[in-house]
User: Which sequence fits this backbone?
């Protein structure tokens, strides 16, 4: 009888098929998974079958490391970092895992032998877009570095059924499409239905004194849901450490429905189920903007309660003495989204584990540390008291108690200073009453940090000033970083190879080693290779642009790129003003000799943020006119790349010549795209904002295009009464540019369309575009002129990369470990795999 099993499939599975790394083994394991996991004959297998079979093959190798990590941590009761974040913007797993396993080339070869192209399979992965932008992506980079540095860590987050929306552009406008990322399955996660934790909402509380004379409070909820754990291994680079990312999904508790069901209210029961499961349905697409939605508060509490209950559960498996909880776990609050944890840990320790208040408070404060990610006042989370109290009645009581004790201390420190007391209070009593989450996070944490030097300073002077004055010792700065594994090795193989050929591979784990490139900046041969790599990356991006939006761009023009969320403070429209300025100049002098210039934009606008959406429309409208005007004759091109996400970032950063980091000074907390660009050899045009300041310090002022007012200058401008209309009236070119938009030149004669943008610039200009306009235009000109001197440009590009070592997320994580978390690496040995035989 002939076997049904196709040739190439192992008939007897050996341990090696799950863990082995030779090309032959990988190929056999892949065939086996295609047959036995995907249930497909090779002849009928789809691209997705191939992708999944490969993903499972890679996952087996991850699991070996993951189980060994878990066992090591458990045996040693290792101190563990818990990174609590409402967002983890991971990006696709497959390529990254191949890099970190050191299996990229072997798998590419194995696929080729099977007649498949690894790149096609990589493209098949739906990226898990469980974040909005910077904050979520930072969490992902930090998970990579924690594992690479062999630090025991758990990331706790929410398993949104729909991540950040997909963006389509129709008639120049953004249209949001639901992100059904789980549609074809997610091979990287393991559901843990046995790890299920109850989460309560609403209802009321009552108190009594128990038979030992203790005051007890009982919370009788109105609604109960359960959190189910979904685990994803996060592997470090060329180490055995694979940490845990545990995301929670909400589900109705069956027994809770029964009552309604038994009384005949079937639809009531079903509604309850739907309501419960809505909690983790969708990521809120607001980046840095508050929206006081009840469901959002439910999400936040759901995450915190699941995470903390899980930590306590893990702790109690090894010790019954909860008073040492903070020795086992240190918890980082990624902004205030998980700040309700402070009250939840108190509730769990006091109400459920019967610890005295003071002991519990000590543990709580020693457990938490808080990172602030924005100075925008509209992003400071506050919840209306009635909403908060009706959803979390017990937490409101706990917060009152925390606040009362805290304010007693403040009174001692500042007798009679009522205003300060009101500002420090966790409860905002001004108009309507609110719970202020940043205040809760500050009071409940032993450490508070900003994400770049300037931002940390401004925090101390502005939004957290009173807290800084009260407890200056809690404050520090931790400048952000990005992982060189995803943002160089995976996304820029050409540059990675070139660098490694000259200085070895150490830089991938020790980014400071890039310094060794400095002497090569003078080496003509090296410079030529450097230029060739960049050019190839640009050709590849040009092909992608052609295929995606049908615009042909010249790879030898300067690729000037601005990709990030669309927001007025990030000033995408300042870049547009410069484009129109160049356009105007060409119209005035058709034979003007300008550097051919390709402007590339990408980014999503929050669906409810009209101005941001209008900025997208403006970019596309200007693109339409500029790209087709015969006078321009291809010397200017404007491209808006739809659906900017991690995958798109991986294409874009390696192909950039000029990186646009043009936020109003004082508004961008750090930025991390700025780091990804510079690390990939782009030069930066930027303001003294966020981490730009430190990037410029590192790469040298002569290798950075600086423009614009500083924070202090802007403060001065506002103090003296900012009058943008005067600037516009005194600058003929600027005025012409604004008028050209207003007169409908870019909107088929419609003079109303862009009025909200232009009018705001004339009259108010909160983000000071007009104040920075001339300086920006001049700086752009300087940069594009310099671009013509390719020798000089390439040299500057090499020096930029050579001096970017500081901006590795490994450096950032080391600082967190030493200053805040006080945690040490734990080496994970790859124990024998005899568990297979057990
Ligand atoms: C962002 C900041 O805007 C960005 O500057 C920073 O690099 C990033 O966080 C990581 O620290 N903030 C957010 O995305 C946000 O939602 C509440 O802040």
Assistant:
């Amino acid at each position: 009888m002939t076997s049904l099993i196709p040739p190439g499939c192992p008939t007897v599975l050996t341990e090696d098929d799950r863990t082995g790394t030779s090309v032959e083994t990988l190929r056999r394991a892949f065939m086996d998974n295609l047959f036995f996991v995907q249930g497909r004959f090779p002849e009928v297998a789809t691209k997705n079958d191939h992708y999944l079979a490969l993903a499972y093959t890679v996952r087996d190798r991850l699991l070996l490391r993951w189980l060994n990590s878990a066992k090591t941590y458990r045996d040693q009761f290792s101190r563990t970092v818990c990174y609590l974040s409402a967002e983890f913007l991971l990006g696709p797993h497959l390529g990254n895992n191949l890099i970190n396993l050191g299996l990229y080339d072997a798998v590419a070869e194995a696929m080729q032998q099977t007649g498949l192209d690894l790149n096609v399979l990589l493209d098949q992965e739906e990226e898990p877009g469980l974040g909005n932008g910077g904050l979520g992506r930072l969490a992902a980079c930090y998970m990579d570095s924690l594992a690479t540095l062999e630090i025991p860590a758990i990331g706790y987050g929410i398993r949104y059924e729909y991540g950040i929306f997909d963006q389509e552009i129709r008639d120049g406008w953004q249209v949001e499409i639901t992100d059904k990322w789980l549609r074809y399955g997610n091979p990287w996660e393991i559901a843990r239905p046995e790890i299920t934790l109850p989460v309560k909402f609403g209802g009321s509380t009552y108190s009594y004194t128990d038979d030992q004379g203790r005051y007890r409070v009982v919370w009788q909820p109105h609604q109960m849901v359960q959190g189910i754990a979904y685990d994803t291994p996060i592997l470090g680079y060329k180490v055995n450490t694979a940490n845990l990312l545990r995301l929670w999904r909400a589900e109705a508790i069956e027994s809770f429905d029964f009552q309604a069901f038994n009384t005949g209210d079937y639809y009531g029961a079903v509604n309850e189920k739907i309501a419960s499961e809505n909690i983790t349905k969708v990521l809120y697409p607001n980046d840095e903007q508050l929206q006081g939605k009840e469901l959002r508060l439910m999400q936040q509490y759901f995450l915190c309660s699941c995470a903390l209950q899980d930590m306590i559960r893990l702790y109690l498996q090894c010790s019954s003495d909860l008073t040492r909880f903070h020795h086992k776990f240190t918890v980082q609050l990624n902004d205030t989204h998980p700040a309700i944890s402070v009250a939840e840990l108190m509730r769990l320790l006091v109400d459920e584990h019967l610890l005295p208040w003071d002991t519990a408070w000590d543990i709580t404060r020693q457990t938490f540390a808080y990172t602030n990610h924005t100075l925008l006042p509209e992003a400071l989370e506050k919840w209306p008291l009635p909403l908060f109290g009706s959803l979390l009645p017990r937490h409101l009581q706990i917060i009152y108690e925390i606040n009362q004790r805290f304010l007693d201390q403040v009174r001692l420190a500042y007798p009679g200073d009522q205003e300060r007391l009101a500002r420090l209070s966790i409860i905002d009593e001004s108009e309507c009453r609110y719970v202020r989450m940043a205040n809760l996070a500050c009071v409940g944490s032993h450490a508070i940090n900003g994400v770049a030097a300037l931002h940390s300073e401004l925090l101390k002077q502005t939004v957290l000033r009173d807290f800084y004055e009260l407890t200056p010792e809690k404050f520090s700065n931790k400048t952000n970083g990005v992982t060189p594994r995803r943002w160089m090795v995976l996304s820029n193989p050409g540059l990675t190879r070139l660098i490694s050929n000259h200085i070895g591979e150490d830089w991938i784990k020790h980014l400071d080693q890039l310094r060794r490139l400095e002497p090569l900046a003078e080496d003509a041969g090296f410079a030529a290779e450097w230029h060739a790599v960049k050019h190839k990356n640009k050709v590849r991006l040009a092909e992608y642009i052609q295929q995606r939006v049908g615009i042909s761009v010249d790879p030898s023009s300067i690729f000037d790129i601005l990709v990030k969320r669309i927001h007025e403070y990030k000033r995408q429209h300042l870049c547009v003003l410069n484009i129109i300025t160049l356009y105007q100049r060409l119209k005035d002098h058709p034979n003007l000799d300008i550097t051919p210039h390709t402007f590339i934009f990408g980014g999503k606008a929050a669906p409810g943020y009209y101005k941001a959406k209008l900025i997208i429309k403006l970019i596309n409208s200007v693109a339409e006119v500029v790209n087709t005007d015969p006078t321009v004759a291809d010397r200017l091109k404007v491209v808006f790349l739809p659906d900017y996400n991690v995958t798109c970032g991986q294409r874009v950063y390696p192909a950039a010549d000029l990186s646009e980091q043009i936020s109003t000074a004082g508004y961008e907390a750090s930025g991390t795209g700025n780091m990804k660009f510079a690390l990939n050899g782009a030069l930066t045009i930027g303001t003294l904002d966020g981490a730009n300041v430190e990037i410029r310090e590192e790469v040298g002022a002569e290798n950075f295009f600086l423009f614009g007012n500083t924070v202090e200058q802007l403060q001065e401008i506002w103090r003296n009464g900012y009058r943008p209309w005067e600037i516009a009236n005194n600058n003929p070119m600027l005025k012409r540019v604004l008028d050209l938009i207003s007169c409908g030149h870019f909107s088929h004669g419609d003079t109303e369309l862009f009025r909200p943008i232009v009018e705001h610039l004339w009259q108010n200009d909160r983000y000071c575009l007009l104040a920075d306009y001339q300086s920006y235009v001049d700086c752009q000109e300087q940069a594009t002129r310099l671009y013509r001197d390719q020798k000089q440009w390439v040299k500057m590009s090499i020096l930029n990369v050579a001096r970017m070592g500081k901006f590795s997320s490994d450096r950032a994580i080391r600082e967190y470990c030493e200053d805040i978390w006080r945690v040490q690496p734990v080496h994970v040995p790859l124990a024998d795999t005899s568990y297979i035989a057990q």
In short: The domain at 487-819 is CATH 3.40.50.2000 (Rossmann fold). The chain has a mean pLDDT of 95. The pocket of 6GP is lined by residues 133-135, 138, 287-288, 335, 373-374, 379, 451, 480, 668-672, 690 (CB under 6 Å). The radius of gyration is 28 Å.
